[in-house]
Amino acid sequence: MDWPQLRADFPILNQEVHGHPLVYFDNAASSQKPRQVIDALVHYYQHDHANVHRGLHELSMRATDAFEATRKKVARFIGAAREEEIIYTRGTTEGINLVAQVWSAQYLKPGDIILLTGMEHHSNLVPWQLAAKRSGAILQHIPVLEDGTLDLDTAATLLTDQVKVFACVHISNSLGTINPVKDLCAKARALGAMTLVDGAQAVGHLPVNVQDIGCDFYAFSGHKMCAPTGIGALYGRYELLEKMDPWHGGGEMITTVTLDTSSYKAPPAKFEAGTPNIADVIGLGTAIDYLESIGLENIQAHGNQLTTYAYDQMQALPGIRILGPRQPRASLIAFALDCAHPHDLVEFANTYGLALRGGHHCTQPLMKRFKLPGTSRASFYFYNTHAEVDQMMNILHQAVKFFS
Ligand code: PMP
């Protein structure tokens, strides 16, 4: 794989920040976009833009074809059985809210258990807190062990037939832990629970197959995998989508409307009210083509190499605490230094052109679990290099000297 050649596809990476070459290690927050995706957006707006589905004219048909072709690509990319199982969303957050709101209104009763984990992103906690409040369901959480993995012994005792929803993050954005979602979903489904996986950090980083995982729902965001912001997808098993009530009401999701009542289209249209984010859907399709041309196994292998290379050097820094297991680990390393608050460290790194992220990473309960105000996080993607890790190590060594 010609990694330097691939890196050249990302024009934004070729710049200096505060007089130093930019080292972008904030990929878990959002990835950068290759020229191919940027060009696809420009081409669409310059040549093909019109509203989808409604028009019989040339531009509307072109826009509709590209919009629906991407749905097929997304379905294939994540291993869905059919394209009608893919609902376009703004991202992971919106996908989870859709399921939590519809499910709690339609199915959850007082006393039902919603089982989550202690390492969820706020976007897989808050929607379920709202759902519990509305329905009278009870929230429970699988604890996180000191090594940053789930406490599977306790999980076994929490998985009872009172659990009606099991929702779990595939890869933790704060620990790098890769959770055994296939096994957990199988256990939860055998007890009759609906299962949802938050795939925000997984899709585009390793091969994902929702049928192999066996979950009912899987949500992810395009912007973390080279696609534009504001677009993502929710996978849902078709027979569940068919039975579910709509979420938002409006144009495009109906078959007939009278002043008093409406009937709804079949999924996915039932869940896509209003004019969708057409351009960014097309950008998502281009991003999938781009990632598939590299190969998800190659992307994962490169990420593993870089992460292990960084992890082993970082471990030797005085006063460092790295969260999460060494292996298996996704391409991110969150850490705390005794000598510096994460915000101070991230500001220091920024003066050398190094983009890290500092804070609670939208996982406040997890920070509390580890008794930390927050962490600093370096997160990698396939366009990052070993030389950039060396640069980060230099800066971290200087930071330790500066703050000690
Ligand atoms: N879950 C995880 C694990 C994440 O890392 C993120 C993004 N930081 C989200 C959910 C939410 O994704 P988005 O903000 O794109 O909806």
UniProtKB/TrEMBL annotation:
What GO MF terms are annotated?
A: cysteine desulfurase activity; lyase activity; pyridoxal phosphate binding
Please give the InterPro entries that the UniProt record associates with this protein: Aminotrans_V_dom (IPR000192), Aminotrans_V_PyrdxlP_BS (IPR020578), Cys_dSase_SufS (IPR010970), PyrdxlP-dep_Trfase (IPR015424), PyrdxlP-dep_Trfase_major (IPR015421), PyrdxlP-dep_Trfase_small (IPR015422)
Which cofactors is this protein said to need? pyridoxal 5'-phosphate
- One biological process term in Gene Ontology: cysteine metabolic process
* Alphabetical keyword list: Lyase, Pyridoxal phosphate, Transferase
Catalysed reactions, semicolon-separated: (sulfur carrier)-H + L-cysteine = (sulfur carrier)-SH + L-alanine
- Write down the top EC class of this protein: transferase
Any coiled-coil regions, as ranges: none
Q: Does the keyword Iron apply?
A: no
Domain Aminotransferase class V: where? 23-391
Question: SUPFAM superfamilies in the record, alphabetically?
Answer: PLP-dependent transferases
Q: What is its EC number?
A: 2.8.1.7
Position of the signal peptide: none
Its biological purpose: Catalyzes the removal of elemental sulfur and selenium atoms from L-cysteine, L-cystine, L-selenocysteine, and L-selenocystine to produce L-alanine.
The UniProt similarity line reads: Belongs to the class-V pyridoxal-phosphate-dependent aminotransferase family. Csd subfamily.
Report the protein name in the record: Cysteine desulfurase
- Name its species: Prosthecobacter fusiformis
